[in-house]
Each structure stands twice: as C-alpha cells, then as structure tokens.
Design goal:
The chain has helices spanning 45-52, 76-82, 102-112, 126-136, 151-161, 186-203, 223-228, 276-279, 327-341, 366-378, 404-413, 442-450; strands at residues 5-10, 16-17, 33-38, 91-96, 117-121, 143-147, 165-169, 207-211, 231-237, 243-251, 259-265, 268-271, 290-297, 300-312, 320-323, 348-354, 386-388, 391-392, 398-399, 418-421, 435-438. It is built from 12 helices and 21 strands. It has 451 residues and is α/β, with parallel strands linked by helices. Helix 3 crosses helix 4, helix 5 (151-161) runs parallel beside helix 6 and helix 10 packs across helix 12 (442-450). It folds into 3 domains: 5-44, no CATH class; 70-273, P-loop containing nucleotide triphosphate hydrolases (Rossmann fold); 277-449, Ribosomal Protein S5, domain 2 (2-Layer Sandwich). Helix content is 27%, strand content 25%. The model has no long low-confidence stretch (mean pLDDT 85). It has a 9-stranded mixed beta sheet, with helices on both faces. The radius of gyration is 26 Å and the shape is globular. The N and C termini lie far apart (83 Å). The structure holds thymidine-5'-diphosphate (TYD) and magnesium ion. The site of thymidine-5'-diphosphate has 14 residues, from helix 3 and helix 4.
Length: 451
C-alpha cells in the first residue's frame, strides 16, 4: 500500500492544497480547508470494476427503452417532482435543513412503496425508526431497516437483499475504508457516493440519499455530489408554518419547475393537492393591504395572498422588509411606484409578507405586490373577489407572464369575479365568466381600483 499523504481539501469546492490556507483560491470561500488523509494508489472499487466490466458501445437506436419505465413511489407529490416517478438505477439527493422532515418523508415513502425497501440510517436506531414508522402508518412486510455507516457493508447488504428501493439517511454519516478521513468530509462523501452510484447503475436500483445543508443553505459537502447524482431535490419550508415544499434543482429525467407541497401533521406529511386551500384566508378581505395573486409554480397554477403594511417611517431611513419575496425586487417596485403613482417612498416603512410562508419565484406576483402596497398606503381594502397577475417593468408597464390562461382559469375556479392582467393575446379562448380587466400601466390599475 502506498504511503498515506496529507492534503488540505476545500470543503466547498474540492480544491486541493498541500498547505492550509485561510481562503480558497478557486471558490473564494474562507476557512473551508480541512486536512484529509488520502492513499493515492489504493484503487477504489469504482476504478477496479471499470477495467473488469467491459461495456461495449451500443447503437442508441437499438437501446431497449422498456427498462426505462418509471417506478411510482405511490406519493403523488413526490412523483410529480421527480417527473413521474423514480427511474431504475437513478440516484436522487434530497437536501434540507435539520428537522424539516426529510427522514419523515422518506420513511413514509418507504411504507407506501410497493416493493422491498431497504432504509439505511446512520443517524437513528431501529427502535427510533420503528416508533416513528408506527406513528406514520402500518408497517409492511417489505420494509427492511439497517443501521450502518460503512459504505462497503451497505452495498454488500444491498446486493444480498436486492431491494427495489434503497434509502440512505444520510450521506454525511457514511464512511468508506478506502479513505482515511473522517465521515462528512468531502473525500468521504465523494467516495461513498461513487460506490453507491455504481451499485445503483449496475443493479438498476433507485437510491435516495439524504444530504445535510450548511448554514448558508447549500448542500453540505457537495457541489461535487450535485454533479454526480441524477436528481437534486430540496425540501424547504418555514419552521413556523406546517407547509413544506419539495423542489427539484436538478433533474436528469424531468423538469425542474415542478414543486410538491406537503403539510406536516401529527401523523406525518400530508400531500396537498390543492395548494390554494392553505394560501387563502377567506374572510380577510375587509382589511387593507391584502391582495391575491394567480401564480404558477411549475405547471401548477394557484392563488396566493400578498400582505403589505405601509406606515410612516419613524427613523430617518425607512425600513423595507419582505418575507417570501426578494427585497431588492421590492425596492425596485417601490421606486416604480414613486415615479408613477407619487408614492412617497422616502417617508414610508414597507413590510411585505407572502402568506403561508412560501417563497415565490414567479414574477407575475409583482402586480399583486404593488396593489397590496397601494391598498395599505391609502388604507382602503381591495374590492372583494379581485385577483391580480402580471409582471411590472421598470417604466411601470405591466408585462405578461407565462400560462396566462391557466392563471385566469384558476382564479375563476376559486370564485374570483375579476382579474387584473396585462394584455392577453387570445382572449376569446378563455371560457369563464370572470371579468378580465386588461391593464398596461401601474397608474391605470390604481385609478381602476380606487376611483
Ligand atoms: P425529521 O424527519 O426528523 O427531519 P429531518 O430528517 O429533516 O431532520 O422531522 C422531524 C420534525 O418533524 C420534528 O420536529 C417533528 C416533526 N414531525 C411531526 O410534526 N409529525 C410527525 O408525524 C413526525 C414523524 C414528525
Ligand atoms: Mg433526519
């Protein structure tokens, strides 16, 4: 065996250095170098079998697609985010803050899955898992549990049991004997993941890995991990709310625009198939500063509520605060309001909140944000049954967003009587009795709403 060598490895990007340095030259992060021991010539199993299995080039045309079927996890929201179910041999990484419900979600999926599941945990004992599983539902004949942290042992057990799905909670607890650094370091994670991925591809077994998240919200260890796995999912939510959102950040087998919505309850995570249900508060319309937006996440339209509070600034610098919305965008919208509607920006505090604790990425929420702010500013509630959807540009023009018809249809379905939108192209194709008010400028909206 070759002599062990000590190198310093950046835990953020994987750059190597013979000496410890405070700042990583390749990714500019501070204090990320950790000393790791590597044995250069010890071949990892991944390298060994590269020589052993001589895969031959095949004609892509003749590749049999039959084994590319999707395996349903029996969880509609999870399947939706994956793009229709698990692909055999795929490796999915699911990241999220501690306590958000990753283990709960995966245990629930294990219980629902029709097939043998091996749930490997390096964090919890069999007793703990059983206690939780009992709470989540009934235990099946096909759910196996393994408390193990050695990657080689896990792969060996998998080969013996040949399960239909393997769950690893979490990748940071694994260690492989090929590398001497401690669990959780970048080399350990990379090597363990490589071995698992190889097993998954060779035996066509889907694997779901749990990944921890660092303080700044990125997956710990892991840009490297994100490259090697097929799918990266992010489980997010606000600890003060019961709602959890599963997003795909990378998906080799589907779109990344789909989201899955869950509600954390006493008996685990409940699938939320109608998101508008938790984002609307039916009786809140007698208050000023509240507006509704027809938004689209992925291909799913739903209505969310925007709340704004505008008050006279007490201190010299007015406060701007936004929850679930980009503060810079809020500042931009306020500047547009100042220019177009004469909103006195410099003397007002503005607080903005997206109900339900969800983060919205759809820009069509701009119009609803502006209307909530205006409504709070003049202290007049927005008329009942009114909904908004449209992006606001720098000169105060209202621009269309994608899937306008779907948004209008969703608003109509939920009983809204009128919707403010930018110019809609094929208005005639929209078959609903909702009144569609087309607006082109911010100032128009203001006069139409409050005159
Ligand atoms: P967990 O799945 O352990 O989180 P993670 O694996 O992401 O760290 O989730 C733990 C939280 O979920 C815990 O704070 C309690 C809550 N919870 C419920 O509210 N209901 C339940 O049925 C379960 C199992 C957990
Ligand atoms: Mg956990």
């Amino acid at each position: 065996m070759a002599k062990a060598k000590t190198v310093y490895i950046c835990q953020n990007c994987g750059a190597q250095s013979p000496k410890w340095t405070g700042k990583c030259n390749s990714c500019d992060q501070w204090n990320t170098f950790v000393e790791e021991v590597v044995i250069p010539s010890a071949k990892s199993p991944a390298l060994l079998s590269q020589n052993a299995t001589g895969n031959k080039p095949v004609l892509l045309k003749e590749v049999n697609e039959a084994n590319q079927v999707r395996i349903s996890t029996m969880n509609t929201e999870f399947d939706r985010v994956l793009g229709g179910g698990l692909v055999p041999g795929s490796v999915t990484l699911i990241g999220g803050e501690p306590g958000i419900g990753k283990s709960t979600l995966l245990l629930q999926i294990s219980q629902q899955f029709s097939g043998t599941v091996l749930y490997v945990s390096g964090e919890e004992s069999a007793d703990q898992i059983k206690l939780r599983a009992n709470r989540l539902g009934k235990l099946t004949e096909s759910l196996f549990f393994l408390a193990e942290v050695s990657t080689e042992a896990i792969v060996a057990q998998c080969k013996q049991l040949s399960p239909g799905l393997v769950i690893i909670d979490s990748i940071q607890t694994l260690r492989t004997s090929y590398i001497e650094s401690s669990p959780g370091t970048i080399t350990q994670i990379r090597e363990s993941a490589t071995q698992l991925i190889q097993y998954a591809k060779e035996y066509s077994v889907p694997i779901i890995l749990v990944g921890h998240i660092t303080k700044d919200g990125s997956l710990a260890g892991p840009k490297i991990l994100e490259h090697v796995v097929d799918t990266v999912l992010q489980f997010e939510g606000d600890n003060h709310f019961m709602y959890r959102i599963l997003r795909a950040h990378k998906n080799r087998f589907g779109s990344t625009s789909e989201i899955g919505i869950f509600e954390m309850s006493e008996s685990g995570l409940r699938e939320v198939t109608n998101p508008s249900e938790f984002l609307l508060f039916a009786n809140s319309y007698q208050y000023s500063g509240i507006s509704a937006c027809a938004t689209v996440e992925g291909i799913r339209p739903f209505i969310i509520e925007v709340q704004a509070l505008v008050s006279t600034a007490v201190y010299g610098t007015p406060q701007r605060s936004a929850t679930g919305f980009d503060t810079r965008r809020l500042n931009m919208l306020l500047a547009v309001l100042e220019k177009r509607v004469g909103f006195r920006l410099s003397s007002k505090d503005v607080f903005l909140n997206i109900a339900g604790g969800i983060k919205v990425t759809d820009t069509a929420i701009d119009l609803a944000v502006i209307c909530a702010i205006l409504s709070s500013d003049v202290d007049r509630p927005i008329p009942k049954g009114t909904c908004f959807s449209g992006e606001v540009g720098l000169s105060g023009e209202i621009r269309p967003a994608g899937r306008m018809e779907q948004r209008i249809a969703e608003a109509a379905k939920l009983g809204y009587r009128r919707i403010f939108v930018p110019k809609v192209k094929n208005k005639t194709s929209i078959k609903s009795d909702i009144e569609i008010i087309e607006v082109q400028k911010v100032e128009q909206v203001f006069s139409k709403l409050f005159s």
